[in-house]
Hints:
alpha/beta, Undecaprenyl pyrophosphate synthetase, six-stranded parallel sheet, about 45% helix, about 15% strand
Amino acid sequence: xxxxxxxAVIPDGNRRWARKKGMRVVLGHKKGAxxxxxxxxxxxxxKIPYLTIWGSSVGNVTKRSPAEVRFLFGVFKNYxxxxxxxxxxHTEEVRVRILGKWRKYFPAALxxxxxxxxxxxxxxxxxNLTFLMAYSGVEDxxxxxxxxxxxxKKVSAASIKESLWTAELPAVDLVIRTGGxxxxxxxxxxxxxxESQLVFTETxxxxxxxxxFLHILARYRDTERRLGA
Length: 229
């Protein structure tokens, strides 16, 4: 079987990684951003058409301490600014999408950086990189249902998908959750993961490596997907 068309990643474990090392938890977020740079490079090398990563939930930016949230916003701003300068986005024709309620919760300077990244890659069509920011799968489904209830569209699988924030994304083939806690969170992409292969790894996100990512891809290729047949 070929590589997955769409991989979604739940990068759990930044704070626990920092605590284990006796570091401030905010430094776990910084290290986590560095890990994503590594995984993104591998995804490009492996020619994965769609890569989606859950960058933050609503709770991450509304329920944690103001100091941690400010630091997290700073990490996001620095990362997106650096990503904008990555020539691969243009040479590889990578379209960047950022989905969720980030326009409501994120500060203006960070939002501006994210809007520029979206605008500068909007015409690209070869690869797709999606960040879920201030995201909740439950809220996404709720707004989709409200949209259908208030309109004239007939409720169907197609109309539900068209009403989701993830409307432009295909079904997820492979979900990777790091951090050693094999549970789902906030209905993560609940419609899109109906037929996904799920991988839960004990590795905390900052320690997630290129080697482990490639091993998971190899296992995926070696697994027959019967999809209920």
